[in-house]
Amino acid sequence: MADMKQQQHKKKAEWQPATWRAQPAAQQPEYPNARALQRVRTLIQTYPPLVVAGEIERLRGHLAEAGAGRTFILQGGNCAEQFADCTATAIMNQLKILLQMSVILTHGARKPVVRIGRLAGQYAKPRSNAFELVRGVRLPSYRGDIVNGSAATRAARTPDPARLRLAYHYAAMTLNYIHSLIDGGFADLHYPYTWNLHSIEQTPEWPEYKQTVEEILNAIRFMESFGGIRPETLGRIDFYTSHEGLVLEYEEALTRYDAARGRWYNHGAHMLWIGNRTRALDGAHVEYFRGIANPIGVKIDASCGADELLALLDRLNPKNEAGRIMLITRCGVDKVAATVPRLARAVRAARRQVTWCCDPMHGNTITLADGRKTRGFSDVLEELRATHAAHVRSQSHLAGVHFELTGDDVTECTGGAVDVTRDDLRLRYQSACDPRLNYVQSLEMAFLIARLLRGA
Ligand code: PEP
Ligand code: CO
Questions:
Q1: What is the pLDDT of residue 287?
Q2: 159 CB near ligand 1 (under 6 Å)
Q3: 2-184+236-453 has which fold?
């Protein structure tokens, strides 16, 4: 018996980038051509890292700080990136809205903000059904550009391994432009007006944003008058990338051993998360994730039991390291009260190190009669408020937020100060997947979160 236990333990301990293959893998594409897949995987394994270990470790430090309440995390981007979205304007707008929100949050919460884009790799989507019926024809579902095409033809929907390679290239292009923008001074706090998107002056948020910016500029000038200039004010900011680690062929191919550090890293993003549908304890995703040293997120909804969560934490973070695990609750506004205190107390009682975040988007999705998915601004805000309050009551701490948002003027979520009505959804609904907060809704949300964090 003891022998068997020991053997089992040994088996668990022997992790390799490919050990996930022995476990049931949910949500994976079925590639018709195994040789083509093998060729692409071998090729990607030779590609240079998109991110390096030093940056990944730095983010881990920031997440530990956030877990302890010293910094706040802003994570956001598209539900699904599409290869066609890899344009200068789309990338710049996404960076701008995240920077503007982070300025508002830093100012409001009086804490540094860690910015994590949901980009440069967010190309895969979990699906409820592997197939769908289109005009009587049964086709594989669209699983994101990294897997297949969205057009309703058999050719487009057949998983194509060449798309794994394309995903790497698009991620590299996206990341390169973001780095260049930041290196070129785009994030310099002396020029926050250059981040104006469209005509921010005409939005209801403009006076408050302007006042925030003026106060920040005054503070910077004051500091500079004493000769103290922090790198942040000159735009040398950290910006991190993340995506759902869903398609394990891609993630495995980007996993390398760092001999100097003695750890395995996924070099495709600084942080990856396990989706709510793929977090089975003995599933392939948990097996893959337990072996990489990157900070990892786990999405959890109301169905997650406390024991289940503690078992996941044991598996994913056996040494109980701070900054390693971000737990992202996404309950839906009505289920927060029955979920967050229960889980937060269990984690606290077991003295597990976690960084709690809230994704107020995915539990609040509704499907309208015309098949369009939407989310109400007030539900999103209420889920955040309720989650924050639940953590306070549980002597726990909400360390960050996770949004699906865009810097563009889309009409996908309803509500907000510039009220988007259900009728308006027809106007500019552009998401390939879930509905995103638009530019003005995102700014408004940042001000409201800043108020919440100040206790106002
Ligand atoms: C997502 O983040 O787009 C997603 C599918 O979320 P979840 O795993 O929480 O459902
Ligand atoms: Co989504």
A1: 98
A2: no
A3: TIM Barrel (3.20.20)
